[in-house]
Amino acid sequence: MSETATLNPALTESAAARVRRIAEKQGKPAILRLAVEGGGCSGFQYKFELADAVESDDTQTQTDGVTLVVDPVSLDLVAGCTVDFVESLGGAAFRVENPQAAAGCGCGSSFGI
User: Fold this and answer.
1) How does DSSP classify residue 9?
2) Rounded Cα distance, 79 and 64, in Å
3) Are 13 and 53 a contacting pair, CB within 8 Å?
4) Which of 27, 60, 69, 93 is 20 to 30 A from 12, comparing alpha carbons?
C-alpha cells in the first residue's frame, strides 16, 4: 500500500452503515463529504454533509459501499483520520479520530493543530 493511501481518511463500518441509512432516507447517493472550516472552540471544526457526486479533485475512500470524500484543502488537516459513528447515553454523533489534532474540545466537533 502506498504512503498516500494510508493517509487517506477512512470510515468505520458503523459510520458507513449510518451514512447508508441517512442516504437511503433522503434518496441520495451514499457519499459523505468531510470538510474542515475555521471556527469552533479549538480553531477548526469538522463539517459533514451528504454529497450528490464526487468532485474531480476530491480524495475518496470506500467502506462497505459508502464513499467518503474530502476536498484538497481539508485533506491536509484530516489526513490519516478515521470517521466513526458513536451512540451513547449522551446521544449519537459522527466522531473524527484525527492523529494530527493537538487539541480538541469536549463536544468533539472542533480541533486545533
Assistant:
1) -
2) 20
3) no
4) 27
The grid coordinates of residue 50 equal 451528504
- Residue 7 CA to residue 25 CA, distance in Å, equals 31
Please check the confidence at residue 3 and state whether its pLDDT lies above 50.
Answer: no
- Specify whether the CB–CB gap between 95 and 82 falls below 8 A: no
Residue type, 63: T
Q: How many domains does the chain have?
A: 1
Phi-psi region of 32 (alpha: psi -120 to 50; beta: other; left: phi over 0): beta
Cα 8 to chain center, whole Å? 11
Q: Cell digits for 24?
A: 437511503
Greater confidence, 113 or 74?
74
**Which residue range is the domain that position 78 belongs to?**
3-112
Task: Check which CATH number belongs to the domain holding 56 and give it.
Answer: 2.60.300.12
User: Nearest CA to 73 among 35, 100, 105?
Assistant: 35
